[in-house]
Amino acid sequence: MKNAIANLFTLPKRKETAFEVQEELQFHIEMLERKYAQQGMSAARAKAAALQRFGNVERVKKQCVDISRRNSPLRRVLKILSIVIAITGLVIQTLSSDYKVARIGGMLIMIAFFGRLLLYVRGLKPWSFLPGTKRTFLTDSPDDGART
Amino acid sequence: MANERTDLMQGTLELLILNTLARESMHGYGIVQRIHEAAEDLLKVEDGSLYPALYRMEERGLIKSEWGVSENNRRAKFYKLTRTGQRKLEAERANWNRISKAVSKILQAT
Asked: Is the Cβ–Cβ distance between A76 and B59 less than 8 Å?
């Protein structure tokens, strides 16, 4: 339970995600190399054959990092939060007879709408708007901190 | 043999992954190996294409991953089926059987 709460509030770091993906892909490539070496290939040929069979490592890595970050707990929480804010706004706007209160409802709907829109901008990290964080996009170098 | 290998139909990789993970949790390399073995190397599956599929399936809650130790004492990420994944597998299997039966009937009729 503690871990789940800690994970929820841990801001995902691109470098860490990229490192984990790289480690996973590296394991696969090394297993292929080992298999080819056992079949009698030289180390160089086994490596070349493994890379050929695997395909474009960098492209796969980038795809996995992007998907992994899209799936972060914080992002999921923000999505749910935007829905809750939108529903609250809608309820306030519908039920309130006071014009000023109804306007608050309208504003909440707008906040939820633009918040949600920000989440869908490809690669944008919503938490980059928190104070003290650098604003970056996922299209930044995929090799950041990755083991090669 | 190489030119007799068939490209995997779009969407079928997911079914193959679900089916492979139905028995036990596995790392990516194990999944690909199992698919190649079961298909007797007749299917053309680029190993790398497995990973984006795995990550997308995890995003959708069909599988979940956990770091563990592989058979050769290396740190590896293991994937296992969730309940949602199990239900999806049953639905996809039924769907696949319907499609293949229908296509076979059409091919036999013409």
From this structure: no
Model confidence pLDDT, tens digit, residues A96-119? 888 888 888 888 998 988 887 777
Q: Which residue has the tokens 């901008």?
A: A121
Q: Which residue of A has its CA nearest to B68?
A: A24
The answer to whether residue B68 neighbours chain A at the CB level (below 8 Å) is no
**Mean pLDDT by groups of 10 residues along chain B of 110 residues:** 57 91 95 88 83 93 94 92 96 92 88
Instruction: With beta carbons less than 8 A apart as the criterion, state whether B63 and B54 touch.
Output: yes
Which of B14, B29, B70 is most worth mutating to test chain A (most A CB atoms within 10 A of its CB)?
A: B29
One-letter amino acid at A16 equals E
| Interface pTM, i.e. ipTM | 0.85
Give the position of tokens 């829109």: A117
CB contact under 8 A, B29 and A60: no
3-state secondary structure chain A: CHHHHHHHHCCCCHHHHHHHHHHHHHHHHHHHHHHHHHCCCCHHHHHHHHHHHHCCHHHHHHHHHHHHHHCCHHHHHHHHHHHHHHHHHHHHHHHCCCHHHHHHHHHHHHHHHHHHHHHHCCCECHHHHCCCCCCCECCCCCCCCCCC
CA distance A94 to chain B (A): 34
Contacts of B36 in chain A (CB under 8 A): none
Chain B residues whose beta carbon lies within 8 Å of the beta carbon of residue A23: 75
- Cβ <8 Å between A53 and B46: yes
Q: Judge: A67–B77 Cβ closer than 8 Å, yes or no.
A: no
